Amino acid sequence: MGIMRSGASATLAACAAALAIGGANPAPAADNIIKIGALLPMSGPGSYFGAQDKQGIELALDDINRTGVNGYKLEVQYEDSACSPLPATQAAKRLIEQYKPDVVIGEECSDATLAIMPVMAQSKVPLLNAGSSSIKITDPGNPWTFRIMPNEVMQGVDIATNAYKRLDARSAVLLYENTNAGIGNAKVFNETFTSLGGKILADIGFGRDVNDFTAIATRIAGLGKVDVIPTYTLEGQGLKITQALAQAGVTKGGGGQAIQLGTIWLPFGFEQKAGKAALGYIRIVQFDPTDERGNVRNFITAFKMKFNQGPTHLNAHAYDQIGLIADVVHRGAKDAQSIRDGLAATKSFSGVTGSVEFDGKNQNVKMDTIHYMETLDDLSWKALPWN
Amino acid sequence: MSDPAPDARTHRPRWPWYAAAALIVALLPLVFTDSYWRTNLIVCAINVLLAIGLDFILGFAGQLNLGQSAFYGLGAYVSTLLIMQLGLPFWLAFACGVAFAGLAGMVLSLFAARLRGHYLAIASLGFAVITYQVLLNWIGLTQGPLGIYAIPPPPPLALPLLAPIEFTDLKNLFYLVAAFAFAAYGLLDQLVRSPIGETLLAIREDEVSAASLGIDCRAWKVFAFGIGSAVAGMAGCFYAGFVGTLVPDAFFITESFTILAMVVIGGMGTLIGPVAGAILLTILPELLRGLGDARLIVYGVALTLVVLFIPGGMVQAARALVVRARRLMSSPAASVGR
Amino acid sequence: MLTVVLQQAMNGLVVGSLYVLVALGLTLIYGILVQINFAHADVVTLGAFAAYFLMHRFGGGYIAAIVLAFVVGGALGWLTNAAIFSPLRERGNELLPLIATIGLSVTLENAMLAAFGPIPYAFDTPYSNDVLRLGGIFITVQNLLIVAVSAGAIGLLYAFLKFTFMGKALRAVSQDRETAGLVGINPNQLIMVTFVIASALAGMGGAMLGPVLVLTPFAGTSVILKAFAIVIIGGFGNVEGTIIAGLIIGLIESYTTQFLNPGWIDIVVFAILLAMLALRPTGLVAERREENV
After folding, report:
1. How far apart are CA B152 and CA C277, in angstroms?
2. Residue A162 and residue A212 in one domain
3. Cβ–Cβ < 8 Å for A354, A371
4. Chain A contact set for B289 (CB, 8 A)
5. Which mean pLDDT values do the consecutive 10-residue runs of chain B (338 residues) have?
6. Four-residue CA torsion sign, C76, C82, C84, C86
7. What is the DSSP string of chain C?
8. For a Cys-Cys bond, which of B50, B250, C3, C262 suits C136, CB 3.0-4.6 Å?
9. Which residue of B39, B255, B258 to mutate against A (max A Cβ within 10 Å)?
């Protein structure tokens, strides 16, 4: 009985101590601080999302906090949401209870974003998302959730229409990873393309543990004339797919004539790894490093100076999230409610990923966030004037 | 590696322990009043269910079941689909979910009746893989990776003379899950202390000898599996209403390994061990959040070291401490006699 | 259509050889030790990373990288045996070592994650982009290399087991450890040798597979489950069975991809596994008696 009692109270004491340590926040040095919570994947397979987001955020904070905005400085607290619903919910609650942010940015993965939305809404803290494509995030209309990234419907309809009209594509093979984002995007392409009169020759979903794509490439090669292959997957498998398709002689990079179409997830630098196999790849990117706009050039220069490498779309969209918040504060917002209202009223913010104007469902509707790039012979990108 | 027969302590009354535990459980959400820690408490309770279920199969019946994640997932999905698609009331769906998981466990056990040791381990793992893949790919039924959202918590409980108890309140939800965990623990404890428990232990130690004593090993293994998997299904039913979101990834096979770690680190073959293991392995990662990925390394290292040096887990370590404490407290002369 | 069917056969054999390379070590360890090593996958991954870094950071050649991976794998095998299997052998409990290797696997994977990060590495070798074509069929030189090395390893292993003294001693120990001890064979030493060889094979396999796999710290785990399935379907401890089962699984993969969808592969493979366990647990090529069944 003795050990049990002391054990239990020891546990309680330990828990209380941990809570005290975890919960204590040093009082902010200046009174005027806008507290920004960042729910990003820092562990597990999605951890490079979080790492790169952090870089973009830090660069933005450097710029903005040099002079502050409207007398306020911006402060960011990071929490690991691990790209998955339960850890994300726990991290969100921890963030809200202990840090009490005025606004939260995150998550990257659609599942996690959908899971934390109710937590944010209940606590009346606005959530600014830049990385999840699922339509469910904005479709029902959530007053506390905002998204600057074009959703899967915007991207899918646009790319399918462009494929049909500008590339004269009439046949397509869908290739996608078996995740929320992969399936969702493929579905939209399918519906749009077929409604225009195109034909889907095969609909191939694969798990994240597939390494060898030769069998899939062989199957596609056996289908006859294929015009476009919309591919929805992350870099690791994307690389293998592109190489396998070239080896099987299906795509332009391999002497065939099919064109791979892709979306936002493949970073710049993919071509260097894929080599000639990536020739002719046309994809939507969230960040166009050849963009001539002044703010983009400055961003690239500053990023290279600070981190010694060119920025990816993850760096860029995180940078924009902070930039947009600063813009809202500049317009007079100073707490959760006013930030929410300020975001909703945004009509013409110009970020490095494109412009922002939110519609009634808090989805950014500006199409210049959808940049089309084509991979050339020398593996560089050519911006296509489709938007 | 574990306590073979609890004879030495059957004479001492158990109810003070239960009462003390009930008191602690009742006080916890009153000490931890923010939703973050209350969320953790609920996760603890769910993990306790999973761990004691597995330990019943593994520690007592000696069956290496690596498929606990499948039963967890089946309980969650079956109950959720019945609620969301067919509009069944929560508790009916709950019962169905638990029953389905239990049945699945029994089927697996029947199927693997002749298998022992590693074969059973791989068979159960194979079962877990297939279950996960079905949940993932049968999008028409389960929504697969698209996920099921806005799953409601258990409906309010209307008690006479009191205001209805809402389970959107985390404190109440914790009490509910903890109550079930308590009940499950009590049930398993009774089973383990009864002749049934001795039968299972006999099967665990030496199946051939047990059979020669007239024990129907197959039937008892199926029984143990059924109970253990039903308890896991119960955890799944609560998980769905608690998180509100259901995706197959929550039930990937690595979940089986985590539950195994809880059982082993806590103390395989005891019932209080898995409880301790579940609580520790739920709270520790939260306390170690600052370490990021390193905390998973700590998990793995802890599991390996415990198996190597303290195979009885925390329970063994605690008992060793008690023995040492007793020796220190009693006089030197008396301790020689021990 | 014929071309497609033939090409998928070729693809299947390549993928099968890939699995065999990983599964061989598992079957060897099981054959002698009656133990499952869950950390085997991570030896493969570690071998792949070792080879990658030698080539891409230190400018080493591919052959050197393969040798390094072989050595790293062997070292890890020796360590696993010395630290885990040896001490636990006396306890006589078959579950504890298995659980310990699970712990080891989790540790290794997350240590690699902390060290290398989750972004896939693009492991290129001089052969990964060259393609051989004959008729309408193609194969990359890297894949050809995998098949050749698999076949070579199998041949060498076979010869070793059948013709050398140590090989025969190994077979003796796997059949009856105590009697082998009576005849003057030192089982502990043999077990250590087996472990080292099996893990070295795995490490080398990693170096061959690195260019083919999506190289992250979790690369090994994407193949390990199927490797286990192959080892059981072929018969635990049975080299010929493992080879046949590996090739069959490879063919199943490519034909399932062709005629159904890749999502079905795991279901088909594990359904076959469960069927085998129900009907013929000793495996396709039943040779050794199994007291576990």
Report:
1. 40
2. yes
3. yes
4. 80
5. 47 76 86 84 95 92 89 96 92 95 93 76 87 89 86 85 82 91 92 88 81 83 93 95 88 87 87 92 77 71 84 85 87 54
6. positive
7. -HHHHHHHHHHHHHHHHHHHHHHHHHHHHHHHH----TTHHHHHHHHHHHHHHHHHTT---HHHHHHHHHHHHHHHHHHHIIIIIHHHHTT--SHHHHHHHHHHHHHHHHHHHHHH-SSPB----TTTT-EEEETTEEEEHHHHHHHHHHHHHHHHHHHHHHHSHHHHHHHHHHH-HHHHHHTT--HHHHHHHHHHHHHHHHHHHHHHHTTTS-BSTTHHHHHHHHHHHHHHHH-TT-HHHHHHHHHHHHHHHHHHHHHS-GGGHHHHHHHHHHHHHHH-TT-SS--S--TT-
8. C3
9. B39
Interchain pair C236, B118: CB under 8 A? yes
pTM: 0.82
Tell the residue number behind the tokens 């499948």, with chain if given: B70
List phi, psi (to 5°) of A129: -110, 145
Could you tell me how many CB contacts below 8 A there are between chain A and chain C? 92
What pLDDT, in 10s, does the model give residues A329-370? 999 888 999 999 999 999 989 999 999 999 999 999 998 888
Stated as kind and residue range, the H or E segment containing A384 is strand A381-384
Inter-chain touch A85–B243, beta carbons under 8 Å: yes
Q: Domain total for chain A?
A: 2
Residues of B in contact with A89 (CB under 8 A): 39, 243
Closest CA to B174 of B44, B284, B50: B44
Which tokens sit at C251?
A: 């063919």
Domain boundaries, chain B: 6-251
Question: Which is it for strands A33-40 and A73-80: parallel, antiparallel or unpaired?
Answer: parallel
Q: Does C147 touch chain A (CB under 8 A)?
A: no
Complex-level ipTM:
0.84
Domain ranges of chain C: 2-279
**Domain hosting residue A307, numbered range:** 3-149+289-356
- The answer to whether A273 contacts C119, with C-beta atoms less than 8 Å apart, is no
CATH code of the domain in which A226 resides: 3.40.50.2300
How far is the first Cα of chain B from the last one, in angstroms, to the nearest whole number?
22
Q: Domain C2-279 falls in which CATH fold?
A: ABC transporter involved in vitamin B12 uptake, BtuC (1.10.3470)
Regarding beta strands A381-384 and A103-106, do their DSSP bridges make them parallel or antiparallel, or are they unpaired? unpaired
Which chains would you list as touching B if contact means 3+ CB atom pairs under 8 Å?
A, C
CB C3 within 8 A of CB C226: no
Structure tokens at A33: 């601080």
In chain B, which residue's Cα lies nearest the Cα of A133?
B146
Asked if the Cβ–Cβ distance from C118 to A44 is below 8 Å, we say yes
Please give the Cα distance from A187 to B247 (Å, whole number): 19
Is A210 near chain C, with CB under 8 Å?
Answer: yes
CB A128 within 8 A of CB A343: yes
Confirm or reject contact between A187 and chain B (CB < 8 A): no
